[in-house]
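Design request, tokens follow.
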């Protein structure tokens, strides 16, 4: 074959794209109920933004960014996540001047140069929310509960919530010291990546999948939280209890990104592959807005990987409601009827029906077959006779029933029949 899609990307074809439309519609609708408003930011940003916001010691920045020089020799990067761009837009457009908290959401592609495997792509899609301007623990709980509700409402009942607190800067500094003391004697046995992490960002050692044994007795960050951080974490948990969102505390959950403070959480589910059990995650990032040049504003958000949601729906055989169209397939026999068909088709579409016709010069029999194959529920046949009588023949494709109706009311008749086909019990 001459051309193939780039490694780690997907073509979302008709038949599968409907599941994506369903998820996106759910996300929009959920955000409407929670009063979050959509934001669309560029797919590429200045590389510096991600160095600042994602953090230079993270895997994303160290190994995974799609970075290129543009024609003016500026370093640009395809966004690896959504928070940096959203916060950049918030600062640049002075959204902090509106009523706090500013509640934003986005849906779109992200890019990371990772080794493709189950649930891991180089172009993937996230639905994310960011609530900027409040440090109320109830807002952390709202965000966690919102993601939880998203999974439930799309039909996934077994996604689990794990939460942790990494505290404020002071708590983290004191934990870092304890962690270094714990890791130092084990340093020679740690994996090469973790040896580097130990020097640059030891918290990230907790993420390691290879050094699990060595980390068995690692001190918990929760024991290093100072009083305000501990109280805050208790409040978030109390709100989650109030919301009846079940969760487990996972004191190893630290997240890979540097700007997180206090609450960290992940949504988890089994069955997609070892490297993909996190189907979403987020946390509080009180330091980020100031870090990228805005006023100091606290914030909290999540990012949900939609490929993984799709994979979960498939492995769990969840039925997604899909619109089947067209409603009606128009068929003409004869030259006059063919001419007239164009305006009938247009009238059907203007009236809100999904309607189509043959464009291949097929015979009547072949057109009826095409109507069947198209998935249409009704075929409408216009011959010269019908035209003379100002009528059209309707054929209900599921039953074979066929009858003529006047051209004055054929569209209403189709709508009636469609609603009876959809709700057969109401017609009785
Ligand atoms: P992160 O920003 O790394 O916390 O990612 C948030 C969510 O995005 C993860 O929980 C995944 O669901 C999803 N995700 C991250 N990286 C990938 C990837 N390479 N392919 C598919 N989904 C991903």
């Amino acid at each position: 074959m001459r051309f193939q899609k780039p490694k780690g990307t997907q073509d979302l074809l008709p038949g599968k794209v409907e599941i994506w439309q369903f998820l996106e519609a759910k996300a929009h609708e959920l955000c409407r109920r929670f009063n979050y408003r959509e934001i669309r930011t560029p797919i590429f940003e200045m590389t510096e933004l991600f160095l600042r916001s994602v953090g230079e010691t993270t895997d994303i920045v160290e190994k995974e960014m799609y970075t290129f020089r543009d024609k003016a020799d500026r370093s640009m990067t395809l966004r690896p996540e959504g928070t940096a761009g959203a916060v950049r837009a918030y600062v640049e457009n002075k959204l902090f001047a509106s009523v706090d908290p500013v509640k934003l959401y986005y849906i779109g592609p992200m890019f990371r140069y990772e080794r493709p495997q189950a649930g891991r792509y180089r172009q993937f899609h996230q639905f994310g929310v960011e609530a900027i301007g409040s440090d109320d623990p109830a807002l952390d709980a709202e965000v966690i509960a919102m993601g939880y509700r998203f999974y439930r409402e799309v039909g996934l009942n077994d996604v689990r919530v794990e939460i942790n607190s990494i505290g404020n800067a002071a708590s983290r500094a004191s934990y870092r010291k304890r962690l270094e003391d714990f890791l130092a004697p084990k340093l020679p046995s740690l994996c090469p990546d973790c040896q580097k992490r130990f020097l640059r960002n030891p918290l990230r050692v907790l993420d390691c999948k290879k050094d699990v044994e060595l980390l068995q007795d690692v001190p918990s960050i929760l024991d290093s939280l100072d009083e305000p951080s501990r109280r805050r974490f208790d409040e978030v948990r109390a709100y989650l209890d109030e919301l009846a969102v079940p969760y487990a505390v996972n004191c190893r959950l630290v997240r890979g990104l540097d700007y997180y403070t206090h609450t960290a959480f992940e949504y988890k589910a089994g069955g997609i592959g070892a490297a993909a059990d996190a189907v979403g995650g987020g946390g509080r990032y009180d330091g980020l807005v100031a870090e990228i040049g805005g006023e100091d504003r606290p914030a909290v958000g999540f990012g949900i990987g939609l490929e993984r949601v799709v994979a979960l729906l498939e492995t769990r055989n969840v039925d997604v409601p899909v619109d089947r169209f067209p409603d009606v397939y128009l068929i003409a026999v004869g030259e006059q009827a063919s001419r007239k068909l164009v305006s009938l088709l247009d009238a059907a579409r203007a009236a809100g029906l999904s309607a189509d016709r043959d464009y291949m010069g097929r015979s009547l029999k072949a057109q009826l077959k095409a109507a069947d194959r198209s998935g249409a529920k009704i075929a409408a046949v216009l011959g010269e006779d019908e035209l003379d009588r100002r009528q059209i023949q309707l054929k209900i494709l599921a039953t074979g029933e066929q009858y003529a109706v006047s051209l004055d009311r054929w569209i209403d008749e189709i709508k009636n029949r469609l609603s009876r086909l959809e709700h057969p019990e109401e017609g009785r």
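Comment from the thread starter after seeing the answer: thanks! The first helix runs from residue 17 to 34.
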